[in-house]
Write a structure and sequence with these properties.
Layout (H helix, E strand, L loop, with lengths): L2 H24 L33 E5 L4 H13 L7 E5 L5 H4 L3 H11 L6 E6 L11 H12 L4 H13 L6 E4 L16 H16 L7 E4 L22 E3 L2 E2 L7 H6 L4 H11 L2 E4 L2 E2 L7 H14 L3 E5 L13 H11 L68 E5 L12 E5 L10
Parallel strand pairs: 1-2, 1-10, 2-3, 3-4, 4-5, 5-6, 6-8, 7-9, 8-10
Antiparallel strand pairs: 11-12
Helix pairs in contact: 5-7, 6-7, 10-11
Protein name: Glycoside hydrolase family 26 protein
Keywords: Glycosidase, Hydrolase, Signal
Organism: Streptomyces albidochromogenes
């Protein structure tokens, strides 16, 4: 290791440790302190309601294109590829690595909030994890303990903070896809280790977020299609805390054909029937190609199914192997998708316009979407990131991230805490060390 790297690492480590210690003092959470469990939250505003299955001729359509600002700018490019189709749903995921990111950093949410406020008929869909370390393959015993902690209110404050930030950013009507695919085994926020605790925890989260003044949030219960590790009906937390019955439905078993995916236990037909029994709208936050490769029969079947059953919204997962626009591996399915949605226009939808966020220091807007030429309707080498990032993207014009070889500036985000935030917003402290010129050679 070079002398420069040793000294730089020592300097940065010292600065970062000082800031962490200072942050702990400012937020009133000294190291080693016992976590304080909040009392059960009481909603101060009525639960959001979708008034049962809406009478809509067609669903609102969008796509998952990238978790960061690129996901916003690519919406216009995809629309042009679809002949100017009306794409009114923006979809992203909060990182599930640490609680600070699950609480929704403003710099991560801001480009999406600005896009949502750009038109009254737009919808912002946000997948929200129920656990940190959400993809670290925790044991069932550890998941069970964490679910019970959540049911006791240990994590309420993170969700109040998220709801507060959404209101402050002017998107109080966000659709929250909470704890998605809970019937599976992929995520730490899975249900099977303790279904009763999972349902109680969901109720705590919804109550905490609904307790924030000004919120108009809707909560989407979105399991995997099929039984998976547990029948998803055993995880259903109750009609009073669910607004939408969603389903993530990729082209994979159970069900070798689309018809089997409809009729199999806990499949697409079961979802539609369950939602009707409970007076809820349906949705498809995630869907796309998968185990069966480029399968135009699945693509046609899924699009026809959604046209017939009128979900509140649907967003295809558009990266390989699932997608049709940013993935060149599925040309036949891409042709079906494009032909069915080319020039598609949504009917007028009555929706409460989002409120403008409270006055705050000006922030840069996300970059404007480039206008692709007719000969190159797809993005070139740009590929979307996975929907579970470990860090939020930087804002336009912001310095590079810590640790980049091409940057001499290191930044540490400072979260001041809810009490301090009444006067001082969260901010980032950046350090730009000066090195002797001969070290740079």
């Amino acid at each position: 290791m070079s002398k420069r790297r040793r000294l730089t690492g020592t300097c940065i480590g010292t600065v970062a440790m000082s800031l962490v210690v200072a942050g702990g003092v400012l937020t009133g959470s000294p190291a080693g302190a016992t976590a304080v469990v909040d009392p059960a939250p009481v909603a101060t505003s009525p639960p959001a309601s979708d008034e049962g299955p809406p009478d809509r001729p067609t669903p609102a359509i969008g796509a998952y294109l990238d978790y960061g600002p690129d996901g916003v700018t690519r919406m216009e490019e995809l629309s042009q590829w679809l002949g100017g189709a009306d794409l009114s749903v923006g979809h992203t995921y909060l990182p599930g690595d640490v609680w600070e990111n699950i609480a929704g950093r403003p710099e991560f949410l801001r480009p999406w909030a600005e896009w949502r406020r750009g038109a009254d008929d737009r919808m912002f869909v946000l997948n929200v994890p129920m656990m940190e370390r959400n993809e670290e393959r925790l044991s069932d015993d550890e998941v069970r303990d964490l679910l019970q902690d959540g049911a006791a209110g240990r994590f309420d404050r993170h969700y109040r903070k998220l709801a507060t930030r959404l209101v402050e950013l002017g998107v109080p009507d966000t659709v929250i896809v909470l704890g998605w695919e809970m019937n599976g085994t992929t995520y730490s926020h899975r249900c099977a280790p303790d279904p009763d605790a999972w349902k109680a925890y969901w109720n705590r989260v919804v109550a905490a977020m609904r307790s924030v003044p000004g919120q108009k949030l809707r909560f989407d219960f979105a399991p995997n299609r099929g039984i998976d590790a547990i029948p998803w009906t055993e995880c259903y937390p109750g009609d009073d805390v669910v607004d939408i019955i969603g389903m993530d439905s990729y082209d994979q078993p159970p069900g070798d054909t689309f018809e089997q995916q409809v009729s199999d236990p806990y499949g697409l037909q079961a979802q539609v029937d369950f939602a009707a029994e409970h007076g809820k709208a349906i949705s498809y936050p995630e869907w796309g190609l998968f185990r069966n490769g480029d399968n135009p029969a699945y693509m046609k079947g899924m699009l026809d199914w959604m046209a017939r059953h009128k979900p509140l919204y649907q967003t295809i997962t558009d990266y390989c192997p699932h997608g049709v626009w940013q993935c060149d591996e599925n040309p036949r399915s891409s042709e079906v998708f494009r032909s069915k949605l080319f020039g598609w226009q949504a009917p007028p939808v009555t929706q409460t316009p989002p409120s403008d966020p409270p006055s705050a220091p000006p922030v840069p807007s996300p970059p404007q979407a480039p206008t692709p030429s007719p000969s190159t309707p797809k993005p070139g080498e740009s590929k979307p990131a996975r929907p579970t990032p470990t860090e939020p993207p930087k804002e336009p014009g912001a310095p590079e991230r810590p640790g980049r070889a091409d940057s001499e500036e290191w930044c540490v985000p400072m979260e001041m805490g809810e009490w301090i935030n009444q006067w001082v917003r969260d901010f980032t402290v950046c350090v730009k060390p000066r090195f002797p010129q001969h070290w740079k050679s």
